[in-house]
Structure formats: C-alpha cells, structure tokens
Amino acid sequence: MERIKVNTAPIEGQKPGTSGLRKKTHVFMGPHYLENFIQAIWNGIGGAEGKTFVLGGDGRYFNDRAAQVILRMAAASGARKVIIGKNALLSTPAASNLIRKRQTDGGIIMSASHNPGGPDEDFGVKFNTPNGGPAPEEVTNRIFEATKEITSYDIIETQDIDLSALGTTVLAGMEIEVVDSVADYAELMESLFDFGKIRSLFAGGFTMRFDAMHAVTGPYATEILENSLGAAKGTVINGTPSPDFGGGHPDPNPIWAKPLVDLMMSADAPDFAAASDGDGDRNMILGRGVYVTPSDSLAVLAANAHLAPGYARGLAGVARSMPTSGAVDLVAKAKGIGCYETPTGWKFFGNLLDAGKATLCGEESAGTGSDHVREKDGLWAVLLWLNMLAESGKSVKEMLADHWRTYGRNYYSRHDYEAVDSGIANAMMDVLRGQLADLPSQAFPAGTVAMADEFAYDDPVDGSRSEGQGIRVVFENGSRIVYRLSGTGTVGATLRVYLEAYEDDPAKLDADAETALADIIATADQIAGIRERTGREAPDVKT
Ligand code: G1P
Ligand code: ZN
C-alpha cells in the first residue's frame, strides 16, 4: 500500500451544472478525469484532512469502480472516515440523511439521476455539504476553479476494498464504515408517517404498484412498502438495481414509465401507483385512471401534509422552482404561509430549509421533498401520499378533484427539445432576451402579455444573487410560458418550454392538458420560433 502523487493537468469542462458534474461515462472513465474532479472537490472545500464523508451512488455502470477510486483518494488526502452504503449504493435522499444524521463534513453522490446508465450513457458526481444538500454555487464555483488549477492528485495504491460486508475497515489510516443502505432511511420515514394507518390501508385490500425502474429505490421500496407496511409481494416491480437500469431510461414520467401509466388507465389498475428515478429522488404519482402532475402533487401535498404526524404542526412555508406551476402558491396563500420562488435545482432550497422558512419544496421535474433531508425524495412523496389517502379515505382521483374545486386548476405541461445544436439554442435564447422589452401589451392567441423578463433570484437568507435563470412571459389572464436551457444534459442543448394556464370555472376542470394549453403552445412557438429555428416539428418529450 503506497501513497502516490500523480501529476495531472486541468481538463476542460469540469464545471458542475444544475446537479453536479455529469458527462458520458466514457469521459469519466478517461485518464485522470474522475481523479481530477475529486481532487478539485477536496481543494475546493479546503482539503479532506481529518474530515468525515458519506459516499454512495445509484449503482449505475462505473459506480463500483468510481467508489474505489474515491475511497483511495480520500485516504490519500488524510480524511478521517468515509461512511459508505453497502456495495457503494445509496439513494440520493438516503445519502443526504446520512450526511445529516452522522454530522459529517459532507458527502459525494455518484449519480446522473434519471439519465440512462452504461458505458455509452451517463455518469455523474456531486458534492453535498454538511447540511446534506447539494453544494451551493459558491462552493461549486470554488470546485470548478480548482479543476482549472490542478497539477496533481493524491491516491493510495492498493487492492479493492470489500464493500459487500457491513462493518469497519481501515485504509491507510482512514476508517471505512460500510453501512446498510436502507436502514437509517427506513427509520426516518417511520418517524414522519403513520405506518400503522398505512398498514391498515393495505390490510384492507388497498392495492399498489411501485416501479423502481431497475434503479436504486428498489431495495428501499421493497423493505418499506412490502416488508414493513404489508403491501402485497410483487407491489414493487423492477426492484433490483442494475448498472444500465435494464437498458431503460430511469425517469419517472409518462414517457419513460409508460407501461405503468397504461396500467393505471386500464381496467386492471390498482388503487395507487408510483415510480422513482435512477437515484431515488424523483417521483411520479398515479391513481386509478389519473396521472398527477408534479406541480399538482406538490400543491396537494402542501394542502394535506398535516394529515401525516411529521407535519401535523403545519408548514412553516413552501418553495417551488420558478418553472413549477403556481398551484402551490394558491395553497400557501389560503394557509397564510410563506411561498418562495427559486431557480431550477434543489440546491436553491437548502438555505430556505435550513432557515426554517420552508417545510415543503418541489419542482415540476418530478421532485418533491421536505426539511427531513436536503434533497428531493421520491419514496417520501409516495409515503406522504399513502398517509394522506389512508387518513382521508379518499382515492387519488377524489383528492385531486377536491383540490381543483377548492383552488382551481393550473393546467401544465413541459415540452423538451433534446440534443438541439448548442449554437442554435443559445441564439434562440438571445433573440428572446432581445424581445423582452417589446413583448408587454402585445396580443397573442394565449392573451396579451403582461410581463416578460429573465428570472434572477436573490436568496433571502444569504443575499446571493443568481441570474440568467430562464425567460418568463406572463399573460394578463395569468397564463405563462417559460423558456430555459437544461443544465443537466450531456449532448448539445436541451430546450425546455414550460406551459401553464389557470382555470377556476368548475365546468372546465377536467380537460386534457395539451388541449387546454393549445393556444399557449402555439404562442410559445410564435414568440420563440422554435420550429423554424430548430427544424423540429414537435418536442421530443412532453411531461
Ligand atoms: C433538471 C430539472 C430540475 C432538476 C434537475 C436535477 O434540470 O429540470 O428541476 O432539479 O434536473 O434533477 P435541468 O436539466 O432542467 O437543468
Ligand atoms: Zn434524480
């Protein structure tokens, strides 16, 4: 066993995006690529010496190899201890929980979330701070600066560490504690929800299907839903994590989880269904004959969270990312609690959660969570839904219909144009920027424009400002279009167009979303010239 210093040079493009550094797996596997970035993390946070970290990932291809490298580098840099999930597996929310519970100096999560896995697909690395949340921009900027100055990294030369057995080993003076990936997380969930009530629900014949999409949530869902809550065996499908997610795209939305949606729209539908993504932080909620949009789910959870013991005291406030629909705002208004609008990406919720300003947060991209961890949490959302259903005795469809009758409905859809030429996408955003001053008072099929701007966020806790967070066009009738370029893609640019219209006429609450949004969809194209500029006739994905 030898500690060595390896000479290296900066590698271009190691700038963390919306959620850590994401690249093609073969890029991460290239010479020094992972090592440079890990050393840059140590350098960016003031060194690893004497520190304790959590380490885990979603089990995608290269997860196991990357874990060995990170352990050897942590030891070489003098870290005191690494707490790692068995076989280097931890869902993102479980990692966040461990970072907090064990009061560590942060953690490294190996994941590219909902992106496919495999040698030709995606890999990612993300640093989370001691509060358990994704590093804020101030930290990721320092890490990025470090990637540009790196000249060497430290690593121990040794055999692989056995990560399949629980317990503690020592590597060059650094403790490695292999922990059960599920146990602490399951305990946290039991502290928030009325497991007895949910058990009675299942015992009374309530049926459910949970699609783990061959990703990391499988073992968590099986343990909690089937073993602990008594859901029938077989409730969890695709529950064994695989390095390439069974060749699929582990993103819980109506496109990639289509078989589940089809089941729920069929005569054989169970009462409730859900799915989660590669690293377990996203969720999709379905009832018999109904799909719940993530924006609606956030609003329904905010309106009913008090039905679960962990939230019985009520919510301090709520927060949503800017492109997320305003449905939750209406709940906050009715409850008289704070409501915050942040840029896209969970890292912006961290300060609000830490400061006790928000209890529940959510994004339109299938992410909901609360102050129990500092990441979004797929299974948590599923359990909160189950707790609400158990307590209220209503079906998902009834919950949603009641919600719309009370608050009105924010029709919502997101259209994604993937792998667009970056030059074309950036030029389109520039043209939109150039139009902002002229748009107000112009009339379109969607209505007359009331306001157009590029969203910027001033963090109310630390005063930091984040600019360039998406272009908003708001109409006098409350409809809204948002244009944004993705910060997680690995090929070209992904243009996201977020479309929203509010309806409170009780007779018009049951329309198909794409139909209800037809004028707004047409207006979005008219303003930005999407079809003409990209040559695309239709979006690649609608969620
Ligand atoms: C996407 C989602 C965003 C989410 C992020 C990480 O980022 O839109 O809400 O926080 O993935 O899961 P984007 O690709 O849009 O930058
Ligand atoms: Zn994810």
Task: Please give a structural write-up.
The chain is α/β, with parallel strands linked by helices and 543 residues long.
Could you give me the name of the CATH homologous superfamily of the largest domain? Alpha-D-Glucose-1,6-Bisphosphate, subunit A, domain 3
Structural class: alpha/beta
Q: Give the number of DSSP strands.
A: 27
Report the end-to-end length measured between terminal Cα atoms. Answer: 51 Å
**Alpha plus pi helix count:** 18
Strand content: 25-35%
Sheet with the most strands? 7 strands, mixed
Report the CATH topology name of the largest domain.
Alpha-D-Glucose-1,6-Bisphosphate, Chain A, domain 3
CATH class annotation of the largest domain: Alpha Beta
Number of discrete domains: 3
- State the shape: globular
Q: Write down the overall mean pLDDT.
A: 96
Q: How are the SSEs ordered, and which strands pair?
A:
Elements: E1 2-7, E2 21-24, H1 25-28, H2 33-44, E3 52-57, H3 63-76, E4 81-89, H4 92-101, E5 107-110, E6 122-128, H5 137-149, E7 152-157, E8 167-171, E9 174-179, H6 183-192, H7 195-203, E10 208-211, H8 217-228, E11 236-237, H9 258-264, E12 272-276, E13 283-287, E14 290-292, H10 294-304, E15 317-321, H11 327-335, E16 338-342, H12 350-354, E17 360-363, E18 367-370, H13 378-392, H14 396-407, E19 409-420, H15 422-435, E20 443-444, E21 447-454, E22 457-458, E23 465-466, E24 471-475, E25 480-485, E26 493-503, H16 513-516, H17 518-528, H18 530-534, E27 541-542
Parallel strand pairs: 3-4, 3-5, 4-9, 10-11, 10-12, 15-16, 15-17
Antiparallel strand pairs: 1-7, 2-6, 5-6, 8-9, 12-13, 13-14, 17-18, 19-26, 19-27, 20-21, 21-24, 22-23, 24-25, 25-26
Helix pairs in contact: 2-3, 2-5, 7-13, 10-11
The structure holds 1-O-phosphono-alpha-D-glucopyranose and zinc ion.
